[in-house]
Amino acid sequence: MNHAIGFVTDTTSDIPAEEAAKYEMGIVPANIIFGGKSFRDGVDISRSELYRRMATERLLPTTSSPSVGAFEEMFESMLTRGFQKILSVHPASNLSGIFNAANVASSHFPDRVKVLESGTVSMGTGFQILAAAEAARQGATLEAACNLVAETRKRVHLVALLESLTNLAHSGRVPMVLAGIGNFLQIKLLISIMEGTVNRVAQVRTHSRGVAVLLEQVRSWGPIEGLAIAHANARNVADALVPQITQSIQGVNRMLQEKVFMIEISPAVGIHTGPGAVGVIAVSAATKQ
Fold first, then answer.
1. SS3 of residue 23 by DSSP
2. So what's the pLDDT on residue 146?
3. Which DSSP helix (H) or strand (E) runs through 110?
4. Which of 38, 94, 133, 277 could tie 23 with a disulfide, CB 3.0–4.6 Å?
């Protein structure tokens, strides 16, 4: 392993544990406040347990960013382990305060820690840092790794199908009255996230129509080099999407079909999408020069 550059992200990037271990990444947990208590995502409570409690206790948790101190400790730990430089990548700053906390912490390590925002969430962030980590493994400099994050960011797509509008309304992304009407009419919303903005793609009346629109979106992305299917406590629904997605996208090769990431999204994100949400996150293949 090339210890010239170390990589840090947070649990909202949803990077699979085996991928994080492969590149010796530091993962800082997001905080979830539930019933008056604060839990570190994946440390104090598992994702499945949080989703179970959300369903059975009918409570709507809130989130808070990791502290500046938590990032300082992580950066210090990585540097002590022998990494010479650190690249830290986090979700869009207008969707979360995580980037800002990491950025403030980085000021205590001048010229040693670089913090970037991904413009998106979940594996949209994950794919960017994985691309940079693999490049660093092959000898890329910090500057080259940062450039690759920026270049990959342009090719990342994320679309999600939400079963309910209630959670999104509580997050302030849609008016509460619209959420109430939408739920009464059983309207399902498809959203995309690009450059830190949540966009409405379509609203549909049935799950099957929602899946059809989702597949249309995925097909429009062209050949794909990275693919993740994400869900918020909806593994069966996500599993059913796998063959439909891999049959729909262009440029699917055997390697990609064998490495479709299945992600249970961090409750720090799932709080806003609501349980039952499913999404597709992909990286379009780079255009050959």
1. coil
2. 97
3. none
4. 133
Which region holds residue 22: left if phi is over 0, alpha if psi is between -120 and 50, else beta? alpha
**How many whole angstroms separate alpha carbon 271 and alpha carbon 248?**
29
- Tokens 């905080």, residue? 31
Return the domain boundaries, the chain.
Answer: 5-30+65-153, 156-284
Q: 16 φ, ψ to 5°?
A: -55, 145
pLDDT (tens digit, 9 = 90+) per residue, 178-198?
444 434 346 788 888 888 888
252 pLDDT exceeds 70? no
Lowest-pLDDT range, 8-22, 36-50, 180-194, 245-259?
Answer: 245-259
Here the tokens at position 289 are 């020069």
Q: Which CATH architecture has domain 5-30+65-153?
A: 3-Layer(aba) Sandwich (3.40)
Percent of the chain, pLDDT > 90?
53
How far are the Cα atoms of 150, 207, 245, 264 from residue 75, in angstroms, in the given order?
22, 43, 38, 26
Instruction: Give the whole-angstrom CA distance, residue 110 versus residue 101.
Output: 15
pTM, rounded to two decimals = 0.90
